[in-house]
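This follows on from our talk about sequence and fold. Please put the record directly below this note.
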Amino acid sequence: MNVQPIDNTKPPKRQKDTELNRPQLPLIIGGLVVGAVLLVYLMVTQTIVQPLLLVIGLLLGYTLFHARFGFTSAFRRMMSVGNGQAVRSHLVMLAVAVTLFAPILAFGYSFFGDGVSGYVSPVGVSLFVGAFMFGVGMQLGGGCASGTLYAVGGGRSVMFVTLLFFIVGSTIGAYHLPFWTEDLPAFEPVSLATSTGLGYTGAWVLSIGLFALIAWITLVVERKKRPPRMAPKPSANGWKRIFRGSWPLFAAAVVLAVLNALTLMTRGAPWGITSAFALWGSKVAQFFGIDVASWGYWQGANAAVLDASIFADSTTVLNFGVILGAFLASAAGGLFKLSRFSGKNAAASVFGGLLMGYGARLAFGCNIGAYFGGIASFSLHGYIWGVMALAGTFLALYLRPMFGLSVPKPKDSFC
């Protein structure tokens, strides 16, 4: 009988880099070329603000994809199994944001000497209904506003359907908005800084206290439910992690807050996404002969936005940057691949996109403009948006199985 010798040597330790796919160099080069062409075009045809916003948008998309920084999944994990890790990363992001926004809003000037203003919107029926609709829609559509953009950049095919109907829903919402805002009850906008007499310092202290309270609540829920922890994702070592592999959620939270503050200082308003969707859809409708200019939404200051090129719209430029940044991040990680999707997933994307688009218009923004930008601007409507979106998420947990979508279970592990 032949006896095989025993090999007592230890295998070499596997490095984290080996867990990553190889960079897709042709895609990276192509993405950089497209970005350079668009940057030059904006420099030639627009003011200096637009190319700067393209770069900021690219960094936003790169950060979102690298960290898989989500709002949809964070809300779903919290409401389904009680895991609040991602929600606490939101709170870190918001804490850094209010710390940066407070002096900027108090000072009142941007990099270019123009005034700055946060997102402070009315509290009324449209906010409650719209945020709830958005909460349902993002759980069916597979992503929020920022998630849709970075998923499209990463090649997730079903999200192209979500984006298309997001635009359709936002356009219909723009058409119906006067009914929701003028014919239904609403209170005036409430700022924790200027409406309460606290000032920006007092509003900052109150905001930090609220974030700490919410974080404590998520920890209490976790101790009671004992949910699974989020699984770590493959990542490179050292400085290579900047370009390859997953970023820690809390690091991404800080970066996103800094980039939002830079956006505020560059264009005079925080980061937003969905107003561009209403513009794109209205432009298409106008092309087919619909009298979009007569809509109440496109009256006043918005009339000039509708008449101008989409490249003159700062939100559009930011959106293009986010998609391109996510594309470059996915290619750098060797992850860009157009995925297949089923009919049920496509149906969920249609309904989800419509609900998000319509809801975002009613609620004065999405998870970025209303939730992130609103709370960072010390607006009461941002907190209400978050509560109603969580309520919509809870309902959507019962709707997702109807479309073949999974719902996290207490014993599941997830990333």
Notes: The chain has a mean pLDDT of 90.
